[in-house]
């Protein structure tokens, strides 16, 4: 029965980590991984997460009963507030709500399922380039018309804003526009607030549907509020939209699959209809969401002292990334590496599109045991004060050889 099956290509980011783990070279560096790393190059269990988990472990009132299909009500309420702010008009009007999902990926998939199955939307746009999984998620939800809007100008190493606008202007009505709400993955290059205003105006004029992907709230500026400027702006402008929230990165809860599909709709009745339909989709897909991670998130969001502690952790992570950007930039400058490298300090969030070519990437892997995606994307957290000289020298060699 299974003899004719073809083996799909390995998933690049996981294959890269596996190759790096097998590599015995003493100076190997993994710049490919999509997760936060400490100055010691280790994953970080946030101390506030640890405290919340300890308290949960000793709470005799907790059990392992199923959650409601739509997820923990306390969690859903808290994540909408985190996204839109407690003074949000959409929240007080009862037209903003969330459904718990399996990470940001689950939220994207659920939203895509809804838009394709119930609204019959079939065209979706992602930025060129985009996170490697967007295309697969939307196609597997049934979307057959996949298009891209220009985003990264590789020559100038910046946003191709004119190209982006032209592509959105040409999009057909009801096309779903996937927008990286903050800390664009993979380029690390975000539009400015003025540019976002222009993007929103085109989306409104062309009657497109905004689907914001917010996987890195806090990582760009260290401020949760500043990093949710985009969804808050769309809300104030009166849009109906979806937002896929992920708490994998900002809580370090990668394997707990904590996310939410947040909806802002025209009125409370519409929201209830949307949620009721999403509930049926969830029931058919994963039936009930997992509880542990959502409980951790809800506990922290609802306790002012834990929330404050979490804010400090976010700043620690964001500042470490900023420091590494600055260090790498200065080292490359000091080495006189040909090319402009200031994009490294202009980009935000964990990732940087270096502009390195596939050949140069290959050289780094083969000669220096530095692992990064073929696109030239690096995770700034893979860099530490101990390996930055090594990485900068290797990049210099790759560029000048
Ligand atoms: N969206 C973007 C842009 C991402 O980079 C990621 C993860 O890398 C996700 C969504 C998915 O996040 P999660 O791991 O919570 O499913």
From TrEMBL:
Q: Could you tell me one molecular function GO term of this UniProt entry?
A: pyridoxal phosphate binding
Residue stretches making up the Aminotransferase class I/classII large domain: 27-395
**What's a GO biological-process term for it?**
aspartate biosynthetic process
Q: Which reaction does it catalyse?
A: L-aspartate + 2-oxoglutarate = oxaloacetate + L-glutamate
What are the TM regions of this chain, as residue ranges?
none
Family that this chain belongs to: Belongs to the class-I pyridoxal-phosphate-dependent aminotransferase family.
Fill in the subunit field for this protein. Answer: Homodimer.
* Protein name per Swiss-Prot or TrEMBL: Aspartate aminotransferase
> Lineage of the source organism?
Eukaryota, Metazoa, Spiralia, Lophotrochozoa, Brachiopoda
